[in-house]
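Key result, reporting period 2: structure in, sequence out.
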């Protein structure tokens, strides 16, 4: 009997050797960690474009900025900025709604966020059509289209993520439990990143 107990104890000891596994609540979810790591890589990508932008502005040092004959539609871009910033509030509303099991609020928040994002992208494309210069017009044209176009590509990706989340919301896939609404939370984190990055782009390119 004692030998069996010793054997069982030894077997249990072998199964639990090493540090204990962390409790689930003390670890960040894999999807959330993944989107944060992705955002870190995207910040470095934007950083490379901002380095080129400030090199042109500080080192080349043209007499005026934007250099002649470039003119930027600051007011229109400001309205577009307000539209995109508003979408941060609607995606937050969507996430808070599903946490309270308010599926109607979730759907409304996602649809409004998608519409605001699509409106921003439409105005940005319309600005390209009417701005009067292209990416081939000197260094400023290249870096302007590079920065704003890079951000526009991120908005487009965000709209795709929101589309998937909205379709799933209308199919009733999400719930109030943390693990049941990651499909809303992860696109929401990405969308907040897109919004914050545009505020930086708008301030650096259009305002300063």
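The corresponding designed sequence is given below.
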């Amino acid at each position: 009997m004692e030998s069996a107990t010793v054997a069982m104890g030894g077997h249990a000891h072998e199964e639990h050797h090493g540090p204990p596994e962390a409790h689930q609540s003390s670890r960040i979810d894999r999807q959330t960690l993944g989107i944060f790591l992705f955002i870190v890589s995207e910040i470095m990508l934007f950083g490379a474009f901002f380095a080129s932008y400030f090199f042109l502005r500080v080192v080349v040092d043209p007499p005026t900025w934007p250099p002649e004959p470039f003119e930027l539609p600051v007011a229109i871009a400001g309205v577009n900025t307000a539209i995109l910033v508003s979408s941060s509030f609607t995606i937050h509303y969507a996430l808070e709604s599903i946490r309270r099991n308010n599926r109607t609020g979730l759907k409304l928040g996602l649809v409004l966020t998608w519409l605001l994002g699509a409106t921003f992208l439409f105005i940005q494309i319309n600005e390209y059509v009417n701005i009067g210069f292209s990416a081939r017009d000197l260094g400023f044209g290249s870096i302007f289209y590079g920065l704003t176009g890079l951000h526009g590509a991120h908005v487009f990706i965000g709209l795709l993520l929101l589309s998937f989340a909205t379709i799933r919301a209308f199919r009733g896939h999400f719930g109030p439990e943390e693990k049941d609404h990651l499909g809303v939370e992860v696109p929401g984190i990405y969308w907040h990143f897109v919004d914050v990055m545009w505020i930086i782009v708008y301030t650096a390119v259009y305002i300063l």
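The chain has one domain: 28-66+75-207. Residues 35 and 186 are 7 Å apart (CA to CA). This case is discussed further under Risks and Mitigation.
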